[in-house]
Write a structure and sequence with these properties.
Length: about 325
């Protein structure tokens, strides 16, 4: 047991496969990261726990048996943890992620299994997103969706120029300079839909907003200190007032993966994709090992296939954001 708990470092996929070369090592690693202060029952955290000897544990107060997968993204899966770990490594450590189709080939599983696997991993990304941003925070919006001029004649959307939401999905981005980022899929880019997300994500007294001339930010100007540029007049920077950081994020961390890796993302699941992009940005300065470890430590929320397909998870998230 002592030897199994000594996990080596890895900086490449070869080293990663050497470290996690058995299913038992994956289980022990998961237990070490999720139960760093000792085994905890998912049914009653205050209960005493017994080790059964067959790899499972027993909660004394409830009499239920459990293992480390219960209550995590790994619960209810028939896949070996080794395949899970490989999927997390590929999705997390590749600079532009990996499509579900390619991952299905790497793991030798069906596309449906791979697609579900990817979204369960993105649930851990969502849990890692910070709650508050401080300091100089740049704000900007982007629109996800193909250009109308590139569509087939039968699929063109009339009157969809500019900031039209008929054929595109708007996303609000908020980034600390030198720090973390939060992205929220919004209904429109009006002040009505932008303001609640900004108030919730950015500290009111310890932050300065860096914004452009868009009228959707007019409300927050009442409460926050801010600096503004006017892109419409060709003014992209006045001293330390600019939005280049968030615009670089759109280009390098979002648009390129969508165009080159995922090709097409649905509006229904778009928030999880942007949580993935945010995770990759927020953990850009850490090693592959630390990035992988962070996903494991945030993997404490289960996502069922029914919730994923029916959009229950997304609805709950929007309700929480609006509160």
């Amino acid at each position: 047991m002592a030897d199994e708990l000594r996990f080596g470092k890895f900086n490449s996929v070869i080293e990663f496969m050497t470290v996690f070369n058995t299913e038992n090592k994956c289980i022990r690693y998961l237990e070490k990261e999720l139960w760093c202060n000792g085994v905890v029952s998912p049914y009653d955290p205050s209960s005493k726990v017994y080790f059964r000897g067959d790899g499972k544990y027993r909660c004394k107060n409830t009499g239920k048996n459990f293992n480390v997968r219960i209550g995590t993204i790994f619960e209810g899966t028939k896949l070996p943890l080794r395949k899970w770990f490989i999927a997390i490594y590929y999705l997390t450590c590749h600079s532009k992620g990996m499509s579900a189709l390619q991952l299905s080939k790497e793991l030798n599983v069906t596309y449906k299994t791979s697609w579900f696997l990817c979204h369960r991993i993105r649930t851990a990304y969502s849990a890692s997103i910070p709650k508050k941003l401080y300091g100089e925070v740049e704000l900007d919006e982007t629109f996800v969706g193909g250009k109308n001029k590139n569509r087939h004649k039968n699929k063109k959307v009339p009157k969809s120029q500019g900031r039209c939401h008929k054929d595109k999905t708007p996303v609000l981005g908020m980034v600390e300079r030198g720090g973390n980022i939060i992205c929220k899929v919004v209904e429109t880019t009006s002040a009505k839909h932008l303001t609640p997300h900004i108030l919730k994500a950015i500290h009111l007294k310890k932050s300065t907003l860096m914004i452009d001339e868009w009228c959707g930010y007019d409300r927050v100007k009442r409460w926050y200190s801010f600096k503004q540029v006017d892109h419409g007049k060709g003014i992209y920077g006045i001293g330390d007032a600019y939005t280049n950081t968030i615009e670089g994020f759109w280009s390098n961390y979002c648009k390129r993966p969508i165009q080159s890796t995922y090709n097409s993302v649905s509006r229904k699941h778009l928030q999880r994709y942007f949580d993935e992009f945010c995770f990759r940005y927020n953990y850009r300065k850490v090693s592959l090992e630390q990035r992988f470890m962070s996903v494991i430590r945030y993997a404490h929320k289960r996502l069922t296939f029914k919730e994923l397909v029916n959009g229950i998870q997304k609805k709950t998230q929007y309700q929480a954001n609006a509160a």
